[in-house]
# Entry
Amino acid sequence: MAFLLIKTMDKLVETDKAREFRRLIEESHKIVLTCHVRPDGDAIGSTLGLWHLLRSLGKEATVVVPDKAPANLSFLPGFKEIAVYTCHDEYVRSTVAEADLIVCCDFNTPSRQDALAPVIQNAHCRKVLVDHHQEPDAFADLMISYPDMSSTCELCFRLIAGMGFFGEVNLDCATCLLTGIITDTRNFTVNIKHPDIYEILMRLLEKGVDKEKIVKDALNTRSYWSLRLEAFAISERLRIFPAHKAALITLSKDDLERFHYEKGDTEGLVNRPLEIKGVIYSIFMREDADCVKVSARSIGKFPVSEICKDLYGGGGHLQAAGGEFYGSLSDCEALLIDNMERYDRYLPAKSPAIKM
Ligand code: 5GP
Ligand code: MN
# Structure
């Protein structure tokens, strides 16, 4: 019975891809798993989830990431074993050089790995992409790209089922995979295309995963200053553009300093303006040390990925995208505002006016 259910869940992943991935794993001993810069729950969940699986299979696996993962993910089993390129570049370089296989999780273009990109791209071994972002660059030998998946972790689960490795999924692996699904879907509220994700949830719960603890640790563990920064951002830095159904929040370096900003503190902030009736898309701009980081979210079919691609050299998904701007925060804002009209054609024909 359990076997039959698992069989139905792999149907969204092409059999050839799962078979080829399994073959590459079986032929390799040293396997590197890697993800994008500023890793989130899905990036860490998918790499660490596969890491646990590969270890159960007797492989020598290592997770290498471009920069540090946020502390709210430190509860994940195996977190301490992650090799961070900005901290241990020599170790990461030699591990990558010795790898038989590299699995690239949760990013669609090498530039999403910043300084780690050339290290991974110049490696001679075979590479597999496991990702759910649109229009990936063809940089891997095996491209497993499914943009209709909520998360790379959802895709990983289906792949694992498709490869026939469900029996090797232990509690640690299940915990990591569910964390990525929970963070990318905001605890099963957004980005879900396939209803049988609830069957995946059931299978992971059956492995003994503590879902409440994941929600508490990964989503609801903010600091005092992070909450105050969000309150400030919403009350003082939120602008609404009723004609374009848009919301914009900007935070300058000074704003961030005033609220003792730490990495991860603005996670989720970009979603908040979508709670306003009538707002179709929301953009958040944060003045970081080297660039302005742009994050965007939308509801319905409004493609914020287009805005991020056109204006900020980025991309992502229809409803969740991002990019970077190399210039002042005010120029970054102006670029958006000057171009808002271009995107009005994507607004739904009927939607409530924003009351202010
Ligand atoms: P976030 O707003 O959480 O940083 O990013 C949301 C999504 O947008 C990510 O999952 C990723 O797909 C995409 N994204 C964010 N920043 C960038 C970027 O700088 N470049 C590209 N290509 N995509 C990004
Ligand atoms: Mn993801």
About this structure: The first strand starts at residue 30 and ends at 34.
